[in-house]
Amino acid sequence: MDTPFDPRPIGIFDSGIGGLTVLRAVAQRLPGESLIYLGDTARVPYGSKSPRTVARYTIQVADFLLARGIKALVVACNTASALGLEALGRHSPVPALGVILPGARLAAGTTRNRQVGIIGTRSTIASGAYPRELTALDSLIRSHPLACPLFVPLAEEGWHHHPATRLIATESLQPLMAAGIDTLILGCTHYPLLAPVIAEVMGPEVTLIDSARAVADALAGRIGPEIRPAPPGARPTRTLLATDVPDRFEEVARRFLELEESGGLERVEMVDLQP
């Protein structure tokens, strides 16, 4: 007899470690679900690759996670969401979600003056993915995209409350402050770690949109109708995989997952995507 439950894990992947903020959001939103995260750290960053290569990498990572028995896949990487999700949708036998559409939907439903800022890496901003989605949702929305490349190293260094971070954020965000936006999409998985500083700089009239939380909510909405939930009382697992483990991977991962230095992080398993 078919069961209404499915104990298989949900897969989450990113080109590096930034997608751990998505893992954290999904774990908080769906605490009973097992999760398996793969960071393609051997080939990061995806932003310097061609669209064809990004799509190919996305399919390779998906195939690896499918072989691990996932029941759904979240593409936490903004670049892969922009350039590889369409091909993945045709390829994957399980539901696949990216971070861009959920973030754009939340922003479109939040803005009052239809002036929406978008911050991200240079590759994400250059893709134009967020403005396209926002326009499709509401043709009257005016997008204000802005690349903030210095935010990623600040997040990885743990300089969330450092005075230098506030100075850099103030300087970087000046164009958006002058644009009169009332909503700001954090279009990089690293940026939620800097949300308190960004919010302080932008002021209380600007609502921050965390794409990690948006995709976690979107995934939760598909549990039941499209994705069978984990069995009641099941003990969820959290598995971390990487294609290359940099020297400080565990330290940075612990910071992204908001874990204590003393522990709480399972061993990171290094894997090879090649057959």
Description:
- The chain has 275 residues and is α/β, with parallel strands linked by helices.
- It folds into 2 domains: 147 residues, Rossmann fold, CATH 3.40.50; 112 residues, Rossmann fold (3-Layer(aba) Sandwich).
- It has 13 helices and 10 strands.
- A 6-stranded parallel sheet has the order 4-3-1-2-9-10, sandwiched between helices.
- Helix 2 packs across helix 4.
- It starts with 9 loop residues before the first strand and ends in a 5-residue tail after the last strand.
- About 2% of the residues have low confidence.
List the helices and strands and how they pair.
Elements (H helix, E strand, L loop, with lengths): L9 E5 L5 H10 L5 E5 L11 H17 L4 E4 L2 H6 L1 H7 L4 E3 L1 H11 L4 E6 L1 H6 L1 H9 L4 E6 L3 H6 L6 H10 L1 H6 L3 E4 L8 H8 L4 E4 H12 L15 E5 L6 H8 L12 E2 L5
Helix pairs in contact: 1-12, 2-4, 5-7, 5-12, 9-11
The average pLDDT value, as a whole number, equals 90
Percent of residues in helices comes to: 40-55%
| CATH C-level of the largest domain | Alpha Beta
The Cα radius of gyration reads: 18 Å
The counted number of beta strands is 10
Order of helices and strands: EHEHEHHEHEHHEHHHEHEHEHE
Strand percent estimate:
15-25%
User: What form results from the Cα inertia axes?
Assistant: globular
Terminal-residue CA separation: 35 Å
In total, the number of domains comes to 2
CATH architecture title of the largest domain: 3-Layer(aba) Sandwich
CATH topology annotation of the largest domain:
Rossmann fold
SS field, number of helical segments? 13
Ranges where pLDDT stays below 50 over 5 or more residues in a row are: 260-264
Major beta sheet, specifics? 6 strands, parallel
Strands ordered across the widest β-sheet: 4-3-1-2-9-10
What is the SS-derived class?
A: alpha/beta
